[in-house]
Structures are given as structure tokens and as C-alpha cells.
Amino acid sequence: MKTLFYILRKDGNGIFRWVEAVNDVDTAETRVRQLCAESQNEFVVFRNIDLRVVAMASENTYKRL
Questions:
Q1: Residue range 49-59: average pLDDT?
Q2: What CA–CA distance (Å, rounded) separates 36 from 54?
Q3: C-alpha dihedral over 13, 55, 28, 61, to 10 degrees?
Q4: C-alpha count within 13 angstroms, C-beta hemisphere, residue 27
Q5: In terms of pTM, does the model score above 0.85?
Q6: Residue 1 reports pLDDT greater than 70
Q7: Closest Cα partner for 28 from 59, 51, 53, 1?
Q8: I want to staple 19 with a disulfide (CB 3.0 to 4.6 A). Which of 7, 36, 44, 65 is the partner?
Q9: Smallest Cα–Cα separation from 42: which of 8, 13, 2?
Q10: Integer distance in angstroms from the first to the last C-alpha of the chain?
């Protein structure tokens, strides 16, 4: 199965770092919510097919774009 989404973490310098890859946006949302609960970092979900950010999250806020 092809990986369609990448989860990226924004570091203190504003640089995005790869965290992990998942196959669907719902799995990405679940995982990003877990990551946000464990840290104060910002995260984005990046769709590999068309190179677009499809969701953003920080602390307790998750937004699909």
C-alpha cells in the first residue's frame, strides 16, 4: 500500500521535520492529536500525491484545510 500522507513537526526555528508516514487522513488526524497531547509543537499533515498541506495542528486545535 502506498503512503499518501506525511506528518511533519515544526521545530523552534520554523523548519519542518518528518515524523512519520500514514496511509489516510483519518489516521493522520488521530496520530497528530496524540502527538499534540504529548508536546507543544505544531504539526502539519502533508499529502504526498499533490504536495499540499491538508491539515494543521497545535496543542488542542486540529484543522483540515
A1: 93
A2: 17
A3: 80
A4: 11
A5: yes
A6: no
A7: 53
A8: 7
A9: 8
A10: 24
